[in-house]
Amino acid sequence: MCWVDKANWIEVSLTVTPEQAEAVAEVIGRFTREGVVIEQAALPDNPLEENLLEDHVRVYGYFFADAGAEDRKRKLEEALWHLGQIQPLPEAQYRLIQDENWMNAWKHQYQPLQIGERLMIIPAWVENKFPERLPILINPGMAFGTGTHPTTQLCLELIEKYLQPNQTMFDIGCGSGILSIAAVRLGAENVIAVDIDPASVASTQENCALNGILDKVVIEQGSADLVLTGHFGLVQAPLVAANILASVIMDMIEDGLSDLVQPGGLLILSGILDYQADGVIQKAGECGLTLLEKRSIEDWVALCLKKA
Known about the structure:
Blueprint: E1 8-16, H1 18-31, E2 36-40, H2 50-53, E3 57-64, H3 69-84, E4 93-98, H4 99-109, E5 113-115, E6 119-123, E7 134-138, H5 150-162, E8 168-172, H6 178-185, E9 190-195, H7 198-210, E10 217-221, H8 224-228, E11 237-243, H9 246-254, E12 261-273, H10 277-285, E13 289-297, E14 300-307
Parallel strand pairs: 6-7, 8-9, 8-11, 9-10, 11-12
Antiparallel strand pairs: 1-3, 1-4, 2-3, 5-6, 12-14, 13-14
Helix pairs in contact: 1-3, 5-6, 9-10
């Protein structure tokens, strides 16, 4: 099947065990520049099959349905085949999604969401009827971090609890910019937001503009290493947040993520499945970070760690 249409996207997904999810996400991430998501797999309608998916997760991502789509799909299939030689994998599922259908689906499903004690995530097309809450206006586009996923909710709750007025926060892997917006709403003096994905950078810029806080958030394409070079004029902050995959977090800790946290400062990490948490805590401990708080929703975990 040939997909060539600039207005369309291709969704690729696999339903796998949590143990397989990280490796599958890493492979999919090589070919889907717009991000990878891991979520609890939906149970099938047939009750006889329920037990088959109770402990499974769905890994999925998107790439443009452009002239290079077929070649990208072929290379992705080859990479999944090699991974499947270690442990059998189900066939990847592909779905063509039109931009218009994507947004219509979001507008139907995406409703205002209350987070923590003070925050309210509000879709851009919905009137703000929550004056008692701090609004985070989000136009989801094709970047991830809309607040509907447990990892984002957990991060927001921890930022709300631990961010102090007039602090600076680093948002590493900013996605849609939702954590940056929340930080400013909660009193951050400024935020430095970076993401390796240009679509996420554009989405963060759009959403920060939507919330009228562009003067408070510096947004650039890059990762923790860009901050560590001194590119932004400071290399440490009292609060650093990263809502990414656990495998990426582990690599970033190896590459100096803890160096971004000032002495006595906090590192908030999410995107971690519960069975991965101990490994992340141990790795962080090797870099002088101790666990301050652990929160969970379903199978997902967020950590708040303190630097000595």
